[in-house]
Amino acid sequence: MDNSGFCNDDYSGGSSDDDLVDLSATAQDLLEDPPDDEWNRGGPGYTPGGGRGQNGTAKLLDLLDDGLHGVGTYDDFNTIDWMKEKSKDRDRHREIYKKKNQSVLDLLLSVSDAFSGWLLMLLIGLMSAHWLTDLKEGVCLNGFWFNHEHCCWNSKDTTFQERDKCPHWKSWAELTLGVSEGASAYVVNYLLYVSWALLFSYLAVILVRAFAPYACGSGIPEIKTILSGFIIRGYLGKWTLLIKTITLVLAVSSGLSLGKEGPLVHVACCCGNIFCHLFTKYRKNEAKRREVLSAASAVGVSVAFGAPVGGVLFSLEEVSYYFPLKTMWRSFFAALVAAFTLRSINPFGNSQLVLFYVEFHTPWHLLELVPFVLLGIFGGLWGAFFIRANMAWCRRRKNTRLGRYPVLEVALVTLATALLAFPNDYTRMSGSHLISELFNDCSLLDSSQLCDYTSQGKGGAGNASLSYGANFSSGLSERAAGPGVYTAIWQLALALVFKTLITVVTFGMKVPSGLFIPSMAVGAIAGRLLGIGMEQLVFYNHDWPIFKGCSSSTKCITPGLYAMLGAAACLGGVTRMTVSLVVIMFELTGGLEYIVPLMAATMTSKWVADALGREGIYEAHIRLNGYPFLEPKEEFKHKTLAMDVMRPRCSDPPLSVLTQSGMSVDQVEALISDTSYSGFPVVVSQETQRLVGFVLRRDLVISIENARRMQEGIVGASQVLFTEHTSAQPYGGPPPVCLRGIIDLSPLAITDHTPMDITVDIFRKLGLRQCLVTQNGVFFLLYLCRRLLGIITKKDILKHMAQMTNRDPESILFN
Amino acid sequence: MDNSGFCNDDYSGGSSDDDLVDLSATAQDLLEDPPDDEWNRGGPGYTPGGGRGQNGTAKLLDLLDDGLHGVGTYDDFNTIDWMKEKSKDRDRHREIYKKKNQSVLDLLLSVSDAFSGWLLMLLIGLMSAHWLTDLKEGVCLNGFWFNHEHCCWNSKDTTFQERDKCPHWKSWAELTLGVSEGASAYVVNYLLYVSWALLFSYLAVILVRAFAPYACGSGIPEIKTILSGFIIRGYLGKWTLLIKTITLVLAVSSGLSLGKEGPLVHVACCCGNIFCHLFTKYRKNEAKRREVLSAASAVGVSVAFGAPVGGVLFSLEEVSYYFPLKTMWRSFFAALVAAFTLRSINPFGNSQLVLFYVEFHTPWHLLELVPFVLLGIFGGLWGAFFIRANMAWCRRRKNTRLGRYPVLEVALVTLATALLAFPNDYTRMSGSHLISELFNDCSLLDSSQLCDYTSQGKGGAGNASLSYGANFSSGLSERAAGPGVYTAIWQLALALVFKTLITVVTFGMKVPSGLFIPSMAVGAIAGRLLGIGMEQLVFYNHDWPIFKGCSSSTKCITPGLYAMLGAAACLGGVTRMTVSLVVIMFELTGGLEYIVPLMAATMTSKWVADALGREGIYEAHIRLNGYPFLEPKEEFKHKTLAMDVMRPRCSDPPLSVLTQSGMSVDQVEALISDTSYSGFPVVVSQETQRLVGFVLRRDLVISIENARRMQEGIVGASQVLFTEHTSAQPYGGPPPVCLRGIIDLSPLAITDHTPMDITVDIFRKLGLRQCLVTQNGVFFLLYLCRRLLGIITKKDILKHMAQMTNRDPESILFN
């Protein structure tokens, strides 16, 4: 570039590991392996000339090992610049592609580069499915090494129907139950249940606190934030993976009202992140890595629910920020592999990828749309209530002394849960067991309490209630509820209230806790209750004109379907999913013919919930934590201009800028220590403020640090030069520090009169971290240049948005 | 604004009708209803001050009737500016929202505005479903007013199985068949078939040519282009709707190798576009209208296949350009309504939304993945071959004399189709009938030729072939093919070749022609052949170790499943859909358990086809027609800079600009007539070229035209002023024309060193039409201003992309 030789400004991009980059260590590394490859500079500043790349003769090793230095990486709890990262990756790709005809090695490199994405997806799909299904949720009495499926397979005496009740398989919580039989043993069982629950939850919270504080909660709010371009180091690391997996099993086994689906998404993303380290392309590029994480979250749902298409849509609709079609195909492939792996592992034992397989296929009636919409309204109301209550509780936890005793909190909640849950059959069983019980339609041989119908003639002269038995006579189309059903109704109603209240305080505790299963359980209870009500209404009033359609021989009301719709409605009300929820539900249950009722219930639920509060539970948690998340769903509605948002404001001191020449190292360091801005514009001179480019604070700090250590003769009085031609260096003085390589020469600039709605759109769509604001110039004196006025960062925009909606702008904590 | 009173520059946005806006007519309208509402100016130029909106006291009527003038609209065959349109809509929304507390009427207006989107979706869902299912594909012999379902419902003698063979219902093509029975009648039937086909196709092509030339073809390439922001007036108009519906029925009935699914998407979009005229919000805003059209295309697929979720995904993956989550929810709702309407109309007569319902649910074996992947490879190869062959044929049609005789071409192709199709059972039947026949698994009572299996003992001593009968003995797990199956194999192989060749020449003719059914038919044939082959291979070699899993009592190979996968693979190879295709296929068949095989076949097909050519059939047709479509899927890989693409180039004359003051009307008109640019930058003066804003050519022409007609004293020497303060007007001279209102004051500008990959990204994501290029300035002398260098338009980018991939840049025809 130039012959002076001491301008080590060619530091490339490259990303960071789990740990914060240690500056002194990287400077040491620099001594051993000085980077001289030209093409890598595509990172922070784009190469200005078109012909630059030709002399790029980077060695293969450099290609793989660049990014030893911190330039172009990000601090923890900071936002990435999508444009920059994607541009870096395109540069890298172009270079590999161009060299592919030079040697066989280069050709192989290019081919492996092209396929590494698919290979990574294959690995994630394979390993996540294995890892996630290997959660030992119980123990096999025939041999502890068997999993659920193999345990029950080996014990030949179980039929297909009874696979859940295979006697040799005991979940951890069940293990202590039933040790003593008889009427007096109830108290013993009760005590055992409670102490077992306390032990498990205590272990879980202790492990989380000791080894991986990030392992708590659902993880989806943080993953949404990370995918939108935020750095949280260690959030997707190996310790989080390990501890979250262990504590998730403990938490689920302790009988707390929580599910494993949300945390499984987090675990899958950890898997994805760890596999990213195998491939330079993904290790070194934050944008590419986020594409992989989007796919991993699809895999998480795919495995958790056995719903591959639903997983892809979940990632698209709920989790991802940037989801191009290419990522969609990759996610699809990863979900395919995961689903296929799941099928070969066969964890549910019925060689179908269906968790809550429903066996009824009775058609529904138009009339039933009314109760379906009612369920949607219930789901929406419940979702809105849950979000408000949970937010109020979490805010109290955050702001009062409660938050200081997380272990005690978990212990108390577990104690309350266990004490209240044991007496009621429907709360004692696990959430997913409860859901599949409620989704189930009563077949002829069903012995459950919910299926205790009296067999009855057409005349309606009720008698002969077969207690806890099945009715073999007069078909299933005409059913009056027996005493078992009435008992079940009361128990379910109590369970509904209990589950609602306990889930409010459980979600957000310092243990892994998902929300899918608890909210589905609440919805399923409500749905089943309504379904039984409808069924009895039709039974006792089948002469009403509106029930005319029901008088035929086919069954009319299927309470299991109501439970399914209620579950969808409540889940929709809490998470505000629509399309993905419908797809997940019908992949979950196999009920393709119920797509219209599902859509009706889900849409109603979303409308009702949105009318009561715009945010879903995940967005609410993101806001509570103050993460810088620019919601892609909501439009910016106010009529402000970029000049109202940019820093500095009119009253502030003027913008701190660097000049392209003339500043000494001391001056630059003073500027850095005096200000807290995350970047500085470089201008030609203080007088004109004409823009040259933009330098990130972090890059500047690292580069000066490196220069001081590496370059001889650098003192406080050395000049810092951002110019291209260093011929103007002062002879006799100390050698200058050339930092042109770290300038971004084409930062995006908008004019100060750009409306904020357009600015927000630009930030959102291009994934910017900051944007310069220049003066349009026309309103001032003629012949004034288009001057640099200020900078808008993502944080400024979020603060502005908070202000416009009367929230505290200081709640946005991070950059 | 100012007191001079003659500055009628507040022309608002608002979009155009089907017809090109007649300038003189709009000027006439202007006389009757001069617009003085301030807030409407949000259109072309953003209101510079924040406090402007307060004095907006727009009358209700103006609110509904603005946009009488052409300012802010687009010419035919031009690209829209998404940013501008969305900003316009936000301004409109903000205004309505702000006023909602002023009066009850305003409140109602605001509520109706919020719900108009959903109402529109409801209408589209309802009407499209009714319109599309009312296509009279045949006639009921019991009474011509019955549709298929009612016809067969009334004739009580049909069972569920036989619903397709209901004797009273005759499709148009069947109507003449079988008029005479007996051996000698074959020739009569043949002749009738051919002449019937010729009559229908002749009618179709004549109607298309006479009334609606846009009604030909599939329509999906054009809809993709329109959705990406292109204007083709009349493409979605009422004549196109009417003629396309009629000719589609004719073309399908004529027995040509074409389907109705693609055209149905076009028809649904026409419905959507026509309904848009009911709502000002959508009539006047091109971006909002495109959101509706995206949803309408989802409705089209939802109705055509009975696949609501698949429809939404099809719109997302294949058709739409800008598909925010809000549009996804709306599409989802519209698809829900359409599916629901479809269910209540019940066109397929089985109260399920399933077109090709498959009744088998036999599990598949791991080993079968090999043939499934083979089918995927076949699909990919076939797709790539089809695209190349069809492109070559279409290019020939376009460039040679062939294109001048479209009626003759249609007649010849119909003649060839009819002559060759009649002798073969499988080509004579309609495409969808063929597919459902091939998807069907042989049940016990099936009398089809394909189900002619010999019943046989375990030993394999073949005998007792029941000709065209069913085998009642020894279960279905062991089947040797009988003579009927062997005949079918030959006929299917011939049909495969015939269908492939004839579809190549059919797709792109001047009749409505879809591609889904023909390519699915080809795939289904190939799949069924492979399925029968596999079945026989397993049957004769069930002692091979790899077939060990098959020796159990369950059925091993299901040829119908192979047909299903083949259909998906071929459709995927042609259209390159992935996720949407899988969802459509399993909604189409109800085969939820076959999602992994479907995914495997589809992914393989896409990989193979992509390796042979990057473009799907729709993209290829878009390129053939020279539409300005910026493919969102493909990355720009070259290392060029914005300065290499912008106009003017170095060798060109300098950029034509307007100055903000000092130009006369004559000068501006001379500039307009001398150049063909679609817009002009406005600069402070010719010397500095410092940018003020940007003016679109069309807006300029219309405004000057209006001023000449409306404003007194405007002559050629009148000054054109773009300044805000008109105090500098020359006293004594003719009054000036104030055109500040049409300037875009904050046009997006990039520097000349911005890499093209980033520029393409910005264009794609923000939906820009043009972008200004300014000089970074640092490479030149100090104290020079950041100068305007040139403009990049979408067309420039597309031409540059064509050039970089060694295609003819002149193939991009439109702006």
TrEMBL record, chains A, B:
SMART domains: CBS (SM00116). Residues 646-710, 742-810 form the CBS domain. One of its GO terms (cellular component) is early endosome. CDD domains: CBS_pair_voltage-gated_CLC_euk_bac, ClC_3_like. Residues 42-54 have a biased composition (Gly residues). Residues 30-54 are annotated as: Disordered. It holds the Pfam family Voltage_CLC. InterPro entries: CBS_dom (IPR000644), CBS_dom_sf (IPR046342), Cl-channel_core (IPR014743), ClC (IPR001807). Keywords: Antiport, ATP-binding, CBS domain, Chloride, Endosome, Ion transport, Membrane, Nucleotide-binding, Repeat, Transmembrane, Transmembrane helix, Transport. It is a multi-pass membrane protein. The keyword Methyltransferase does not apply. The chain crosses the membrane at residues 104-127, 190-215, 236-258, 264-280, 292-316, 366-385, 405-422, 488-509, 515-540, 561-586. GO terms for molecular function: antiporter activity; ATP binding; voltage-gated chloride channel activity. Its main location: membrane. It is found in: Endosome membrane; Membrane. PANTHER family: CHLORIDE CHANNEL PROTEIN, H(+)_CL(-) EXCHANGE TRANSPORTER 5. Belongs to the chloride channel (TC 2.A.49) family. This is Chloride channel protein.
